[in-house]
């Protein structure tokens, strides 16, 4: 994987092979950030990266100037890798090792962008639980956006606060905003 744009543009990041992850493809990530670029000034926002995995999305935000980034993942190896990479590139990424659902139930962190990349094998009720908890606990700041990455076989368009979705190959991003 590589960083698409910003201070660390074109830097390659090689994650250990034993991490239980499926990183967002460069094509999908570039398309996502082209969309976000129309909504936000990256150096003025805070980001919550759920199911952070390798930290791929967190690094992209950091490279573009975001300084308030929190990455949550339950895998110790993922958290360790994110910490090592953030230190290597001098990025300010706060990591939390936690089950994402337990974190969301107790979280008081509010962010402009919440990005969730759960396992594609999640059942529909688990996908539904993400926006439910985010909006129930008011985790999005005013004008904020929740983005859930999922396979094209999962349809989240009937959920409350759903705004729109974009498809990139087998990847899909569903965007949610407070009404």
UniProtKB/TrEMBL annotation:
The keyword Transferase applies. One of its GO terms (biological process) is rRNA methylation. It comes from the Bacteria. Keywords: Methyltransferase, Transferase. GO terms for molecular function: methyltransferase activity; nucleic acid binding. Pfam families: Cons_hypoth95. Coiled coil: none annotated. SUPFAM superfamilies: S-adenosyl-L-methionine-dependent methyltransferases (SSF53335). The keyword Lipid biosynthesis does not apply. This is RsmD family RNA methyltransferase. It comes from Wocania arenilitoris.
